[in-house]
Amino acid sequence: MQLYLIRHGQAGSRDNYDLLSSLGKQQAQLLGEHFRAAGISFRAAYAGSMRRQRETAEIVLGAMPEAPEVRSDARWNEFSLEGLWKTLAPHLQAENEQFARDYAALHAANPNVDRVMTSCDVELIRAWMASHPGCDGVEPWKEFRGRVEAPRRDLAEYGSGESVAVFTSATPTAVWCGSALGIEERKIFRIAGVLYNTSFSTLRLRDDEVTLFSLNNTPHLRDTSLRTFR
């Protein structure tokens, strides 16, 4: 079967991230129109339980004829960067001078900075992946990775020639693509960091093999001003 991993449309600002911006809705509409024009159809469609993922799915599939009903599956949810900021950031501010300086320069005076990846975010993620003790109460990296890879067992029920759409986020997509390529864990976020909003990546699942066919496709975003990473 062919799996389409679709990243959600552009989301809101850092203080209200789990919703689509007006541009995010436009990106989703354009993707649905592209699928329709290309004659692409899906046997089934899944979305994480986050609002930005579900709303993207609804808009995309709403532009397609005879689209399947979206099934909600929280295993496709993104990890909680907000949780890392609440629990882990205070520890890094106390023990990491560079993190403290970057926080003062980038975040302290602008807590609602747009959701772009800053050096502080990168350091938080690195510490999370290394199981820093300050991560208590946040889903551990290894559990997160196991969660987003678990749906593979359910996807095995679909047959050859069938296509399934999954509306998710950057990191779950990167985990799947990175696993198919056999890359090191620490490089997974290099994939996540370059995925455009509403880009789609395609993989083939056959028996125990997962093959990456394409990554970060944006044929529906012809105008470069429509290509965003938030």
Question: Please, could you describe this protein's structure?
Answer:
It is a single chain. With 230 residues, the protein is α/β, with parallel strands linked by helices. Helices cover 41% and strands 15% of the residues. It contains 10 helices and 6 strands. It has a 6-stranded mixed β-sheet with strand order 3-2-4-1-5-6, with helices on both faces. A hairpin with a 2-residue loop joins strand 5 (200-206) and strand 6 (209-217). Helix 1 crosses helix 2 (51-62) and helix 4 (89-95) crosses helix 5. The longest helix is centred in the N-terminal third of the chain and has 16 residues, at 22-37. The protein is globular and about 55 Å long. The model has no long low-confidence stretch (mean pLDDT 93).
Mean residue pLDDT: 93
Number of strands: 6
Give Rg in angstroms. Answer: 18 Å
- The ordered H/E elements are EHEHEHHHHHHEHHEE
Structural class: alpha/beta
Estimated share of beta-strand residues: 15-25%
Largest sheet: 6 strands, mixed
In whole angstroms, how far apart are the ends? 30 Å
